[in-house]
Amino acid sequence: MRSDSNAPVPAEELDISSMQLGIDDIEFALNSREHVRSIAQSFAHQAHRELLLYTDDLEAEIFDQQPFLDATSDLVRQHQDAHVWVLLENSRKTVQHGHRLIELSRRLSSQIQLRRPPVQYRNHGMTFLLCDGTGYFYRPLASRYEGTCNFNNPGQTSVHRKHFMEIWDQSQADGETRRLHL
Fold first, then answer.
1. Quick check: 8 and 28 in contact, CB under 8 A?
2. What is the pTM of this model?
3. Comparison of pLDDT for 10 and 176, the residue scoring more
4. Which class does domain 27-177 fall in?
């Protein structure tokens, strides 16, 4: 039994694969790559309007996996007004390794956009993914898989979304992700 009832429930104690966006309101703790990958895929699969991602390098082990890419592609193809916006701090290595989300963004450039944050917002070390203004996962250190997640917390998601939009509005398209490397 957990001693602190306000602490997030460990993901191991939940069936996170069955959680539904906009329904399941429980904050839980992420602590493994597998949990983060599963949540990213679930958000992309369940989204109807938007995915907002802030990341250092588009972690291939999370965001360059076929289930995530397929769900992201389906989102923007099946929902006319849907979009995926990514704030990417370090694109060079990601582009050199041929990340497939970048390739997808080149084909669906009006719905999937990648931008580079201005200097004052870089190097904060965090990663977060927001889904339809309802669900989020947040990792304070991108180099680690520990963080929190909730499939139905519009209040906390709104706080993260406001921060994301503040950065997005000041960011620029990243030339590294837009050019074709032949």
1. yes
2. 0.91
3. 10
4. alpha beta
